[in-house]
């Protein structure tokens, strides 16, 4: 079992808590109990398709996920084999893990890897002797849980087909009362769609409206993580409003009151205080309009609010899709509604286009949003002071190549003031000097092949970019539909990371949202399989470097520590040198945003000798920073 622990010590001798760079965390739900298996003095509990273990004697809880050894995500069935002293866990993709009470895990991937046309989904498990019999539509799979192998496969025509298997005894009824009192820390649900960091809290929503599939609604969900605990906002709001509370896809927080929160979804706008609904808005009590779908005017079941955003004054900007004569609204801090409707936001029939979403204010105070819908994808830039809107629906790059994306999925602004958009045909950038112009170039970064030719390739050309975030070092995190996550250097020329489910603890290769805690560097990835995070090596830079801002951890570095020493509180692109007491440089480099990491090795790659080392910093323009010390003990 892996244990994540970092001891933190600052230059001013204060202790702080942080995760080691490069570590992963899963934030999984264990809310809806599905199965319980008693294993001597342990209970294995399958809940929300995730697994945890409860010790009856000491009441301790151990949660399982990809970080501490599971091979996959979304467990559908579990069963305990008393003779083999192992639990079998079946995933929805037919992967198999055998789990022992001490946490050891053995994977059996033969069924998962088997290439057949038949459905391999396991629908039931029976236990007999040291064997588990897995029921599928095409055969019974016999697993030897002691030898950790698939020993036989019985088809319906097999002469030894085991019709009368010993049924597995379910412990659910006996222990559900006990399990219901347990509370493994985590969110209530694994439903995650959009997220944003506001202050020191991660706000997440759980669904989105698909115009092509209106019946596939997702229950309204808002979950907030403060770094330690989760808060679930009020549910069953349909009992109050009389209309479905579904497809909550956007959320924002009042800049003047962190407990005052708004959310939008399929059936209008919702106002919360301390996680409880205080007001809801639909076509009956606000300028919001019901959807006009192909000439049919719908009611409060379809008041599409797919994008909201507060400005610094406390006004809430609201996008109302598929409405007639309504598109962009402002709800002032004194609860007055102002319409900012523009014909640029209508289709040829005068109806507001259907997928207005993903709102963002840039560093110039301009409001950006997209129409993320296949028939009329577009990007919009709105000047709230001048009431001028610019529509960009022709994607043409610097080489005059025209693209026709189906989806514009996301927007982000980098540290240089450039605006990035993610589409299903790749990322594009509007350079800072063109912002506000009627016509802009959708610049594609060219990455040299470095193969002896002068050729270059467009960055992620034709890769479906689903989400983006910019970290403290101006590096770009790209989430994709199908290819996992990419991290690109600040100059856009180098791929620093590519995380997938196959090479990392990423939960799913389809990423719906990326959010970064800029103070800690933890990067959160949302998907249909749940929420996970990666501890990166970049944080937001400080405005100045003083001993009150700079922190170093761990300090001292003990002999058993093999991770990176982390220095934080640096200014952007600061120069950092690690020297001996006599001034010899053993390591040097530039900060990632406000962070610098050292592996306790010298320039020759050897671990440095025991001693006290100096940390000397300077700003990117050469001005003197601060000096600190770090002790290394071997």
From TrEMBL:
What domain of life does the native source organism fall in? Answer: Bacteria
Q: Which InterPro entries match?
A: PorZ_N, Quinoprotein_ADH-like_sf, Reg_prop, WD40/YVTN_repeat-like_dom_sf
Q: Which UniProt keywords apply?
A: Signal
Official protein name in the record: Por secretion system protein
Leader peptide range in chain numbering:
1-19
What positions does the domain PorZ N-terminal beta-propeller occupy?
43-158
